[in-house]
Specification:
Layout (H helix, E strand, L loop, with lengths): L1 H5 L5 H8 L3 H13 L3 E7 L4 E6 L1 H4 L2 H14 L7 E7 L4 E2 L3 E4 L4 E2 L6 E4 L3 H10 L18 H7 L2 H11 L5 H8 L3 H13 L3 E3 L7 E3 L1 H4 L2 H14 L8 E5 L4 E2 L2 E4 L12 E7 L9
Antiparallel strand pairs: 1-2, 3-4, 3-13, 5-6, 5-12, 7-10, 8-9, 10-11
Helix pairs in contact: 5-12
Length: about 290
């Protein structure tokens, strides 16, 4: 729904056509986004109860998350059964682009290997909320829809337990008992999410046969998505004490200044200078490794 809004959908029928969601499901999601302050519901006709849903500033700043999920799909989901993909064009240089996350202070690409995370001043606040809200969630469905949006990766990062599992593995945890303790989750949920992420190709069993799980290349490449989600959360949901996690790089431990740039010209990408197009995928064409 947010992807449709970012691509210009405003009215209910627009969202139906773009997302292919059932109307009852769509109504529920739109209402949740209004309550969360990401959409604003306004009447567009005085003759009937007809409304538009427009992005608020909080909603617009989710745009960077959409860019990074699309970048991941471009790199790793080319072999999926999807019929269409979203092509991004950087208006400033006129070329199709794959968004790249960099540290603006050093002009270097950000990855799981180049930056480090450590507890921030708001860590205790987040842990307390996580423990209070502990509950079993529904299983994750990874079916690829007929929409153009990156449903596979969104289905994973949108599930709280899958996201927590990846976070724990980003922090270097790999054994079942370590993950269970860190996530404070029931054993059946952890077992299910390990299976889900393995089937999705984001993690795998260690080749050493020691029972550990390791991130695959696609799994490691979800790290930039989580960094952008974390930045959005710091702006809109942080505790009064400050962010729960800080990100730095290098021996000098300089804070990272996240920015998203064009893969072609290295210019900045934002909601005003990126255009979306829908391209039909030719599955007969060879896919580069």
């Amino acid at each position: 729904v947010l992807g449709a809004a970012l691509m210009g959908s405003r009215r209910f029928d627009d969202f139906v056509r773009t997302t292919l969601l059932q109307k009852t499901t769509l109504s529920d999601r739109l209402q949740r986004l209004v309550e969360d302050g990401c959409l604003r519901k306004t009447a567009y006709s005085s003759h009937a109860s007809r409304f538009e849903y427009r992005l608020t500033r909080k909603g617009v700043e989710l745009y960077d998350i959409a860019l990074m999920t699309l970048a991941w799909e471009k790199r790793w989901d080319a072999r999926s059964a999807a019929r269409y993909r979203v092509a991004l064009t950087h208006v400033d240089c006129g070329h199709e682009t794959v968004p790249v996350l960099i540290d603006a202070a050093t002009d270097t690409e950000v990855s799981i290997d180049t930056v480090r995370r450590e507890p921030g001043p708001g860590e205790g606040f987040v842990l307390a909320r996580h423990r209070r809200r502990r509950r079993q969630a529904e299983g994750v469905t990874l079916r690829q829809s007929e929409t153009v949006f990156p449903s596979r990766i969104n289905g994973i990062i949108g599930d709280r337990w899958s996201a927590l599992l990846l976070r724990s593995m980003f922090d270097g945890l790999s054994r079942y008992d370590e993950l269970l303790r860190d996530m404070a989750v029931a054993t059946n949920i952890l077992t299910d999410r390990l299976k889900t992420l393995t089937e999705a190709g984001l993690i795998e069993r260690s080749a050493d046969g020691d029972g550990e799980y390791v991130l695959t290349a696609p799994g490691r490449d979800t790290y930039p998505i989580f960094l952008i989600i974390m930045r959005w959360g710091d702006r809109w949901c942080a505790a009064p004490e400050g962010p729960p996690v800080v990100v730095h790089q290098g021996a000098a431990r300089q804070p990272v200044e996240l920015a998203i740039v064009c893969s072609h010209c290295h210019g900045p990408l934002n909601v005003a200078n990126v255009s979306f197009g829908v391209v039909e995928i030719d599955h007969r064409a060879p896919v580069s490794a």
